[in-house]
Amino acid sequence: MTTLVFYSEFDSFEAWSALLAPQLPDVTICRADQVADADSVQFALAWKPPRGFFAPYRQLKLLVNLGAGVDSLVGRDDLPDIPIVRLSDPDMARMMAGYVLFAVLRYARDIPAFERAQRERRWHYLHPREPASIRVGVLGLGELGAYAARELARQGFDVRGWSRSPKALDGIHCVSGAQALDAFLGSSDILVVMLPLTPETHGLLDAQRLARLPPGCALINVSRGAIVDQPALTAALQSGQIGHATLDVFDREPLPPDDALWGMENVLITPHLASVAIPASAARQVADNIHRVMRGEPVLNQVFPARGY
Length: 309
Ligand code: NDP
What we know:
Blueprint: E1 2-7, H1 13-20, E2 27-31, E3 41-46, E4 62-65, H2 71-74, E5 84-86, H3 90-108, H4 111-119, E6 135-139, H5 143-154, E7 158-163, E8 173-176, H6 181-186, E9 190-193, H7 207-211, E10 217-221, H8 230-239, E11 242-247, E12 267-269, H9 279-295, E13 302-303
Parallel strand pairs: 1-2, 1-3, 3-4, 4-5, 6-7, 6-9, 7-8, 9-10, 10-11, 11-12
Antiparallel strand pairs: 5-13
Helix pairs in contact: 1-9, 3-5
């Protein structure tokens, strides 16, 4: 018997097992607290499992992270030495791109100004700007970043992207490496943060780097709060050096009720839901990677703990 063990406090076991079972007829799928024989467990599908979770599963061959972000996983010191893969699902990328598009268009079309004017019963005509005149910088051109950058380019924005290694994406001006970052920030009227949280990106957007952004720019963070120095961001939003922010992720989640960001007119807060794993489409990819391991083939969408993503 071969078992896939499932662990998540956020995702539905019923939904995932109903979708995976027909694709994995020779695999028993069960919750972590229902595993009868730990030695039959060869596969794990897990989101933020507790410390020591992997220890009983000595025959584990593949760990599937039930999400795209792996920062909570790769830093652990109890990881088994087996391939780790992440979800890399086009439906999840489309949902993320939808959020980014919404947030960018909201600023590009001056919607916050109209929301304020409406509250004041004031007819406030602002002539729409051409999208090509608005420079949108996307930090991180991975599965989610590249998809969002392409959607933004389709809307006619002047899209630029920054990644670790050089990239070529149609219609997007791509730059790479730490030395390119300051100039990149200086030419982003709207900055979208789509980097993974790693030792290299932790605190990357500190006070000095935030000061490089054009005065009055907008910042959208959909990746991880700790990439941005939150007190420095708050101060820059208070002074107007950064004009607006849309924040889906924070240093501490839930964002504490007394945090200054809650009360700021120029900040839109959402509770970490820019995108979620979508079982209907992602289950195919989970099953595919399990079949690959069974056939002794290389897995797709592998995560490298030493690199951090
Ligand atoms: P990927 O791992 O596919 O891509 C990461 C991108 O960031 C790559 O382009 C990579 O460069 C670049 N990068 C990594 N480190 C550096 C660095 N030091 N300097 C410059 N560029 C760097 O990630 P995804 O696109 O799939 O996801 C991004 C993040 O979004 C996730 O890590 C997760 O934290 C977050 N997320 C948030 C959700 C939400 O609801 N808010 C939902 C899902 C994910 P290169 O291409 O050269 O490797």
